[in-house]
Input
Amino acid sequence: MPTFALRPLSEEQFDAASPCYHSFTFDTRRAAAEVWADLHSDTPLQWCTGLKRVRWTSARPHGVGATREVTLANGLRVQERYFRWEEGEGDYVNAFVVERGSLPLFRRFGERYSVTATETGSRFTWEFDAELPVPAALHRLVRPVVARDIARLHRDSLAHFGSLNAEV
Output
């Protein structure tokens, strides 16, 4: 059970200028509703090789307040809570914060998924923002490690969903 509490992260704190902000976007032929359903299935993110297990810890229907526990391939475990969840016609977005982790690797950590319908399928954007428990000057040393892990999620997602613009 994760034992280290992280600080809250609000949606306003997702900031591309943050030293630990990362994101990727790609277009896929898959419909927005299909991508969204895959992201929130009973076995979400099973295509991500850096994740060992993702398990919902709250009952359906999922929405604001939904919780999950994630075990990464390296053994780190985290507990997540969704604070935004919007499902519209062809437009979907949600965001969560990591509330607890098995190691004190982050002060704050959150993710946001956006899926938007396009003429050829949908556009998927996955954003990550974090605050590390080290002085800002040291973020530049940690950033490449985090970027490598995000690039792995990107490659895995491209392989799973298929992409019309397969840049990594």
User: Anything to note?
Assistant: The mean pLDDT is 91. Residues 42 and 56 are 7 Å apart (CA to CA). Strands lie at 4-5, 22-28, 51-56, 67-72, 77-87, 91-101, 108-118, 121-131.
